[in-house]
Fold this sequence. Notes:
By secondary structure, the protein is α+β, with helices and mostly antiparallel strands. 42% of the residues lie in helices and 16% in strands. Among the domains are: 133 residues, no CATH class; 59 residues, no CATH class.
Amino acid sequence: MDNLTHSLVGALIGQMGLKRKTGLAMPTLIIAANIPDIDVVATLLGGHQHLAIRRGITHGPIAMLILPLLLWGIMLWFDRWQAERGTRPTKRLLVHKGWLLALAYIGCLSHPLFDWFNSYGIRLLEPFSSQWYYGDTLFIIDPWLWATLIGGIWLSRRREQSGSLKFTRPAVAAALLIGTYITGNNAVSARAEQVTMQAVKLHLNLVPKLVVANPVPIQFWKREMLWRDDIHYGQGIYLAPNNLTLTGAVGVHNASQRLSVESDKDAKAFLFWARMPVILARGEGNDRDIAISDQRFVSPMVGDRFTVRIQPEQLRK
């Protein structure tokens, strides 16, 4: 998910009452909820090489063990540093080392959980396994999720500022609503995949090996349906609860083609990341090349960012 969502999740956890457990609780939760994204430095490599690095080692079990410990140490140091300088806020709660460490772990673990909810992919077991996992539940930026998180935090803060001892209730209610929203979206995706599988078999006489319900922006009741067998691929639009329209022509994805990409770092990284690769020849004569894309990201808005081009001689039949 986007970093605003991760930050709001950390803040909501704090407003559910955990911020009262120790000093520096809220900044620890918010920073911890974002810290696995330190792998964003991989984008400095340019091209598509970052795809093979993002959502990997910093989102895996070793990072989930070490990153909270590092953050915990930094926050303890910061508290002592402020105390020595005489700049530590007098109203801040004393730091409870045990609770501060627990909150660092809670915030950090929330990050891979929410990243798993979308279709981009996450390697939850890296470095022990490079298997990609996909939740296919939420679009990467979800305004409905934002609204619920912000509403819960704002109402909770208002109650807290008024002195109410029940200030946690709006935050808890928001968390329950988010859980219901995510569960419902997961059910929509599961149903969409089932309906698409049946429709492709019935209307196209093909048996998909993979069907993906790709969430779309804002319209949580809608899915961009992507399917493929060993040779063909296609798409459709699903509207809950049972409205499916197969759209576009059935194509040949050529994913079984053997590619020579060991010397092409961008292509190699892209194929490592790709879940639904499509390999197509483009152009003619001297302008001919091979375009490698992914069915999940072919819309005009993002297609160029998720397409790698190689030379025809790198494709071996």
